[in-house]
Amino acid sequence: MTVREIRLFGDPVLRSACDPVRIGARGNESLVEDLLDSVRLPGRAGVAANQIGVGVRAFSWNIDGDVGYVLNPVLVEVRGEPEPVDEGCLSVPSVGYPRLRHPWARVEGVDLAGEPVVVEGEGLMAQMLQHECDHLEGHLYIEGLAPEVKREAMREIRAQDWYRAQG
Questions:
Q1: Structurally, how many domains does the chain consist of?
Q2: Around Cβ 50, how many Cβ atoms within 10 Å?
Q3: Would you call 32 helix, strand, or coil by DSSP?
């Protein structure tokens, strides 16, 4: 079992759009195994590849005991009016704020063999799909906060021990 260290706010790998996964490339199986091992820890809904330091389009999820992964995911559909949901991020530990998210989402991608994968759902699944796809574009959830809330979040982030330890 390989649980990889989660990269934290300020790490450049989190701010860059990820490259597509080359299906059939050596190392993909290890990446997927690490993503799955890393998301199985309690309190984790999703882990994007860049959160474990790999700048490719892949993520894993663990929602209500449903654990899986998708390579080269594309958020193809959202439904419903965005509504505020409490959100946090493993890359921004101990900091959570309400963020607007659509109540339903659908992602399409592939598995290790290149076979189609469709992941869709509502509630926490929809939130996770949107959150992880944002990661793969180099965006953290705090970027979608209202300006006054984002200022408060940034003050809170700068006050965190983990943030000060990076500098």
A1: 1
A2: 27
A3: helix
Indicate the DSSP class of residue 99.
Answer: E
CATH number at residue 17: 3.90.45.10
Residue 167 predicted with pLDDT over 90: no
Which of 132, 137, 143, 152 is catalytic? The answer is 132
Query: Does any domain span residue 157?
Result: no
pLDDT of residue 86: 96
Q: How confident is the model over 12-54, as pLDDT tens digits? A: 999 999 999 999 999 999 999 999 999 999 999 999 999 999 9
The 3-state DSSP class for residue 75 equals strand
Active site residue 33: no
Domain span including residue 127: 12-81+102-139
Does pTM top 0.85 for this prediction? Answer: yes
Q: Look over the chain and give the mean of its residue pLDDT values, rounded to a whole number.
A: 96
Produce one character per residue of 18-40: b if its CB has 16 or more CB atoms within 10 Å, e if not.
Answer: beebeeeeeebeebbebbbbbbe
Say how far apart CA 50 and CA 54 lie, in whole Å. Answer: 5
